[in-house]
Amino acid sequence: MTASLTLSPVVEKALAEGRPVVALESTIITHGMPYPQNLETARQVEKELRDNGAEPATIAVLNGTLHVGLTDPQLEQLSQAKGVAKLSRADMAVCMSQGGTGATTVAATMIGAAKAGIEVFATGGIGGVHQGAEMSFDVSADLAELALTPVSVVCAGAKAILDLAKTLEVLETRGVPVIAVGQDAFPAFWSRNSGLRAPLRIDDPADIAAAHMARRALGLPGGQLIANPIPVEAEIPRSEIQPVIAQAMADAKQHGIIGKAVTPYLLQRIFELTKGRSLDANIALVLNNARLAAKIAQEMSKRPE
Ligand code: PSU
Ligand code: MN
Questions:
Q1: Residue nearest ligand 1's atom 21 by CA
Q2: Where, by residue number, is the active site (predicted)?
Q3: Measured from the CB, is residue 163 less than 6 Å from ligand 1?
Q4: Looking at the predicted complex, does its ipTM rise above 0.85?
Q5: Ligand 1 pocket test: which of 25, 26, 27, 86 has the largest number of ligand atoms within 8 Å of its C-beta?
Q6: Which domains does the chain have, with CATH numbers?
Q7: Mean pLDDT of 185-189
Q8: What is the C-alpha separation between 286 and 251, in angstroms, rounded?
Q9: Is position 13 annotated as part of the catalytic site?
Q10: pTM, entire model
């Protein structure tokens, strides 16, 4: 282990004892939700994991050190910090070498989790192929990371701000298993059904854990994308969210928003346009993903090889 990686004492102990640990990202805190709901959600997700028998490990770069497991004061500070970098595979090491602070996206969180020996990670939605990517080439590094790093990522699918059909194509090309849970359809974050069929389906967390282990036994690099639909009572149906997304995307275009700024801008705009309903849905799906991730991590800890 390098000196630039710091495990929190609770996470270190849980890993040493072979107890289930679930990684959590920090970009959702700094760039995905407004304060104070971001802090409340971060705390609630950690509690949900503990209540379900898994130790949470929120990952972030703080003053040049990659932290796996944050203390509550660290979480609180990050949730209110201004101008925090949004780190992915490309810029994580530069931030660390300069002593900087940054939140980890799905890609960077997978890197931190793998370094610490954590194989399950719960989040909201992953990045993917943006609409218009045939012109902009805007494809999230999350997809490449899923092909490289052996972590099973539990999400609620990908947002319809992305081109979901192209996102599934890229994942297939890169050899990433996309596994829907409890239904055949690939979920679309705020909505349960994207209108696309997921390539794979597994309903039992024990079988998801077994598939992860089978990949490892085959010596395949990369992880699994576990697509867990938002609970029915919290969903915003596709017909309702679609025009809101279209409006937010038109606003982004008009304001010349590009690159890393696109996802945070759209999330904020959709929050405004739905008068907070998108955030309520986001919180519900993250908690739901934490519960499933805890079950998968428990199953994995039962079968260490
Ligand atoms: N989905 C969310 N909230 C988020 C993100 C995705 O519901 O905050 C973040 C994740 O950290 C994801 C990142 O890894 O956006 C993708 O950004 P980009 O498209 O710039 O790669
Ligand atoms: Mn991008």
A1: 140
A2: 25, 159
A3: no
A4: yes
A5: 27
A6: 5-302 (3.40.1790.10)
A7: 97
A8: 26
A9: no
A10: 0.96
> For every residue of 215-249, which 3-state class applies, written as one string?
HHHHCCCCCEEEECCCCHHHCCCHHHHHHHHHHHH
pLDDT tens for each residue of 76-109: 999 999 989 999 999 999 999 999 999 999 999 9
Tell me whether residue 44 is exposed, middle or buried, using C-beta atoms within 10 angstroms of its C-beta: 0 to 12, 13 to 18, 19 or more: middle
Ligand 1 pocket, residue 25 CB under 6 Å: yes
pLDDT digits (tens, 9 = 90+) for 209-252: 999 999 999 999 999 999 999 999 999 999 999 999 999 999 99
Residue 59: alpha-carbon gap to chain centroid: 11
Which-ligand-closest: CA of 141?
1
As given in the structure block, the two tokens for residue 43 are 């705390």
Q: Is 25 a catalytic residue?
A: yes
Bridge partners, residue 7, by sequence: 68
Q: How far apart are CA 254 and CA 97, in angstroms?
A: 36
Closest ligand 1 atom to Cα of 25: 11
The one-character DSSP state at 190 is: T
State if residue 263 touches ligand 1 by the CB under 6 angstroms criterion.
Answer: yes
Give the helix, strand, coil percentages of the chain, each rounded to 5.
Answer: 50, 15, 35
